[in-house]
Specification:
It contains 3 helices and no strands. It is mainly α and about 100 residues long. The mean pLDDT is about 80.
Length: about 100
């Protein structure tokens, strides 16, 4: 083996080793720097009590709801069973003329 090839092998080993070592060193420094500069914990605001609990606003008394009077709908809503039965029997759909 010639001395030139041996020197190139050593130089290649030193170059690859230094690249791996340098990247490991940079990664380590970045990790340590980030651990030293952590964000402070967030400040949680104290919740103010509700004004009705402190007595500054009077609590309203509950009022019973008034039901509106029921009015029969002008248009029938719902399912018309009698009409369906008439259709099933074969009776005419339209009512007879008066």
């Amino acid at each position: 083996m010639s001395p030139g090839l041996f020197a190139l092998r050593i130089l290649r080993l030193l170059a690859c080793g230094s690249i791996v070592g340098l990247s490991t060193l940079i990664t380590g420094f970045v990790a340590v720097d980030r651990l030293n500069h952590l964000a402070p914990p967030p400040v949680v605001a104290v919740a103010a009590p509700e004004p009705s609990a402190t007595g500054s606003i009077p609590v309203p008394q509950p009022v019973a709801p008034v039901a509106p009077p029921k009015v029969a709908p002008k248009i029938p809503s719902g399912f018309d069973t009698e009409r369906l039965n008439a259709l099933m029997r074969g009776d005419p759909i339209l009512p007879g003329r008066r």
